[in-house]
Structures are given as C-alpha cells and as structure tokens.
C-alpha cells in the first residue's frame, strides 16, 4: 500500500510540475508524507516521492522479472547454489 501511495503521488507531482502547478505538487508530497507516517504504513519504506521500500516484493523471482521501481535491492539478488527456492 505504501509503495502504491508513493507511486501515485509521484505521478501526480510530475503532472502538476508539467502543468505549472507547483502548489499541487507540494500538496501531494505533503499529504503523502502524512499518510506514510500513519502507524499502518510507517516503516514500510523511506522517502516520499523518491520512496524506496524496506521489504522485497519478490518480483525478481518471476521468470523474466527484475527489480521493481522502488526495490530495496539495487539489483536482483543471485540465487543460492544450495537453496531450492531461488
């Protein structure tokens, strides 16, 4: 939920900047920061419009997958030679 919220806010802020509405971009960022501070979302990631999750969604394990846009990894982890799950 936190990732989706941050992604939506990022798109809204981008639209606002492109349409010369900096106050709308500022309001989107401020509201998103407040919502991300809610106890149910707090700790899910860092940043607001540059949100980066603290947990992995495991997208990199999907055939042809990689890391998501706000992945906690800089690049997909390598599979363990001994592990059967990756």
Concise summary:
With 86 residues, the chain is mainly alpha-helical. It contains two helices and two strands, in the order ααββ. The chain has two domains: 53 residues, no CATH class; 31 residues, no CATH class.
Descriptive terms for the model:
2 helices; mainly alpha; 86 residues; two-stranded antiparallel sheet
Could you explain the architecture of this structure?
The protein is mostly helical. It has 2 domains: 2-54, no CATH class; 56-86, no CATH class. Helices cover 37% and strands 5% of the residues. The chain contains 2 helices and 2 strands, in the order H-H-E-E. It has helices at residues 2-18, 22-36, and strands spanning 45-46, 52-53. The chain has a two-stranded antiparallel sheet. Helix 1 (2-18) runs antiparallel to helix 2 (22-36). It is flat and about 45 Å long. 12% of the residues are buried. The model has no long low-confidence stretch (mean pLDDT 85).
Q: What gross morphology would you assign?
A: flat
Strand share of the residues? under 5%
Low-confidence parts lasting 5 or more residues at pLDDT below 50?
A: none
Q: Number of DSSP strands?
A: 2
- Which bin fits the share of residues in helices? 25-40%
Our measurement of the CA-to-CA distance between the termini, rounded to an integer number of angstroms, reads: 25 Å
